[in-house]
Amino acid sequence: MAERPEDLNLPNAVITRIIKEALPDGVNVSKEARRAISQAASVFVLYATSCANNFAMKAKRKTLNAGDVLAAMEEMEFERFLEPLREALEVYKKGQKGKKEVSEQKRKDKEKKADAENDKSREEEEEEEHMEEEEPPEEEAEEEEVEN
């Protein structure tokens, strides 16, 4: 857990980026306002996490899931955020599924490449063995020359 209350605050860079994205160009926000927004956001996240944790505990789980967060938002009377959250969750799941599929494809491609390389090295070994069988040993070749 956090040692100091400041440890619970969200990173200033993240807060600043969110503020800039939410406001039109040319609007400046004072340092004090950014700090107040940061603290308010941190308190909101902690409260939402606490509420979601209560839902997980009622279900006798130690892991929070998306359903817990959505239920917490409803309990906190932030129903208007439920649909955007569901949409964001769906986009996230699709992105993760896509990443998983790409990762799986890369793994399969890597296995195919390794199999192809193994096949090639086996063919080369077999070719070398075949060549060795065809060449007479040096001693026999010398004996044949001497007899002629």
UniProtKB/TrEMBL annotation:
<keyword id="KW-0175">Coiled coil</keyword>
<keyword id="KW-0007">Acetylation</keyword>
<feature type="compositionally biased region" description="Acidic residues">
    <location>
        <begin position="124"/>
        <end position="148"/>
    </location>
</feature>
<dbReference type="GO" id="GO:0006272">
    <property type="term" value="P:leading strand elongation"/>
</dbReference>
<dbReference type="GO" id="GO:0031507">
    <property type="term" value="P:heterochromatin formation"/>
</dbReference>
<dbReference type="InterPro" id="IPR051377">
    <property type="entry name" value="DNA_Pol-Epsilon_Subunit"/>
</dbReference>
<feature type="compositionally biased region" description="Basic and acidic residues">
    <location>
        <begin position="93"/>
        <end position="123"/>
    </location>
</feature>
<keyword id="KW-0539">Nucleus</keyword>
<dbReference type="Pfam" id="PF00808">
    <property type="entry name" value="CBFD_NFYB_HMF"/>
</dbReference>
<protein>
    <recommendedName>
        <fullName>DNA polymerase epsilon subunit 3</fullName>
    </recommendedName>
</protein>
<dbReference type="GO" id="GO:0046982">
    <property type="term" value="F:protein heterodimerization activity"/>
</dbReference>
<feature type="region of interest" description="Disordered">
    <location>
        <begin position="93"/>
        <end position="148"/>
    </location>
</feature>
<dbReference type="GO" id="GO:0008623">
    <property type="term" value="C:CHRAC"/>
</dbReference>
<dbReference type="InterPro" id="IPR003958">
    <property type="entry name" value="CBFA_NFYB_domain"/>
</dbReference>
<keyword id="KW-0238">DNA-binding</keyword>
<dbReference type="GO" id="GO:0008622">
    <property type="term" value="C:epsilon DNA polymerase complex"/>
</dbReference>
<dbReference type="InterPro" id="IPR009072">
    <property type="entry name" value="Histone-fold"/>
</dbReference>
<comment type="function">
    <text>Accessory component of the DNA polymerase epsilon complex. Participates in DNA repair and in chromosomal DNA replication. Forms a complex with CHRAC1 and binds naked DNA, which is then incorporated into chromatin, aided by the nucleosome-remodeling activity of ISWI/SNF2H and ACF1. Does not enhance nucleosome sliding activity of the ACF-5 ISWI chromatin remodeling complex.</text>
</comment>
<feature type="domain" description="Transcription factor CBF/NF-Y/archaeal histone">
    <location>
        <begin position="9"/>
        <end position="73"/>
    </location>
</feature>
<keyword id="KW-0597">Phosphoprotein</keyword>
<comment type="subunit">
    <text>Component of the DNA polymerase epsilon complex consisting of four subunits: the catalytic subunit POLE and the accessory subunits POLE2, POLE3 and POLE4. Interaction with POLE4 is a prerequisite for further binding with POLE and POLE2. Heterodimer with CHRAC1; binds to DNA. Component of the CHRAC ISWI chromatin remodeling complex at least composed of SMARCA5/SNF2H, BAZ1A/ACF1, CHRAC1 and POLE3; the complex preferentially binds DNA through the CHRAC1-POLE3 heterodimer and possesses ATP-dependent nucleosome-remodeling activity.</text>
</comment>
<dbReference type="GO" id="GO:0031490">
    <property type="term" value="F:chromatin DNA binding"/>
</dbReference>
<dbReference type="GO" id="GO:0006974">
    <property type="term" value="P:DNA damage response"/>
</dbReference>
